[in-house]
TrEMBL record:
Name of the protein in question: Myeloid-associated differentiation marker-like
Localisation: Membrane
Keyword Transmembrane: yes
GO cellular component: membrane
Organism field: Seriola dumerili
Length: 299
């Protein structure tokens, strides 16, 4: 089969420009961070090292994924891949914007303790923000396309599911303090119940994403709308439990704050904020699912 390449005018299209911007900025960002030595990062603190790995993984993962999408778009081979292309590109763009927003907050937080900042660390922080702007621009370009080109993930329920997946991804480094973080002064059972809740919800988000990207909705044992409504309900219940535990931790901080490092307090507050945002996303998604089920039952 001959290789089809884009026409010359396509190389100046907004989508081509923003994807090139994403590849270059993300590659430069993780290259700068990889070149830093231990004196420029708090590698001696295990929980901060976890967040550094989280940032590096985010930049490298989305660089690789965006580069593959970019190449396949140029040679027009995406039609040969058994994946819903429009849902894949929208998912990568929106999730990339959210994840790069997180790294643009987390990475400066990591280097804030240094009294003397190097040019490499400052440049990496700035480039991370530029990467976030690049993915945000691609999300906007894809959202302005026709509804048929955006796919399910470009709709409001689809965007909410991406937000849910983002919330689960943020919890991975946040709950690592169970093993290697500073003492938080909260009960062990609270930590592990939260971890179980986040783990179940991440698994459900990944299953939903695989079903949508693989166009497996018609092969589900249950109707797909009921399948999504069930996952949304489970997500609401689990995140309600996790959010209550988070606020309980904050209330406990009033009595034990003097014995907890500042970073430990910040981790608890960050977990509470992300859990609340994700709970809101699941709640709104459940409302959309119930409305869809009611509309179909009356049709």
């Amino acid at each position: 089969m001959p290789v089809i390449v884009l026409e010359a005018k396509d190389f100046t299209s907004p989508l081509f420009v923003v994807r090139t911007w994403e590849v270059l900025s993300s590659c430069t960002t993780f290259s700068l961070v990889a070149s830093l030595d231990s004196s420029e990062l708090n590698k001696n603190l295990s929980y901060l090292n976890t967040f550094r790995i989280f940032c590096m993984f985010t930049w490298c993962f989305f660089f690789t994924l965006t580069l593959l999408i970019h190449i396949l778009s140029v040679i027009q081979f995406h039609s040969l891949i058994p994946i819903s292309w429009k849902n894949l590109t929208m998912t990568v763009a929106v999730l990339g914007a959210l994840m790069c927003l997180s790294t643009s907050v987390v990475f400066p937080w990591i280097i804030m303790d240094h009294q003397k900042l190097s040019t490499h660390t400052v440049a990496a922080a700035v480039l991370s923000c530029l990467t976030f702007l690049a993915y945000t621009s691609e999300s906007y370009v894809l959202r302005t396309q026709a509804h048929e080109q955006r796919g399910y993930m470009g709709s409001m329920p689809g965007l909410l599911k991406i937000l849910q997946l983002w919330g689960g991804c943020q919890m991975i480094p946040l709950v690592m303090d169970v093993v290697c973080g500073p003492p938080s002064g909260v009960h062990c059972w609270q930590r592990w119940v939260s971890c179980m809740s986040y783990g179940v919800c991440i698994f459900m988000s990944l299953v939903t994403l695989v079903v949508i990207l693989g166009d497996f909705a018609g092969r589900c044992l249950l109707p797909f709308d009921r399948f999504l409504a069930g996952f949304s309900l489970i997500g609401v219940l689990f995140y309600m439990v996790a959010t209550v535990i988070c606020f309980t931790k904050i209330l406990q901080l009033r009595d034990i704050r003097h014995s907890i490092p500042n970073k430990g307090v910040e981790l608890i507050i960050a977990e509470t904020v992300v859990a609340s945002i994700t709970l809101l996303a699941y709640t709104v998604d459940l409302a959309f699912s119930i409305k869809l089920l009611c509309d179909r039952s009356h049709a």
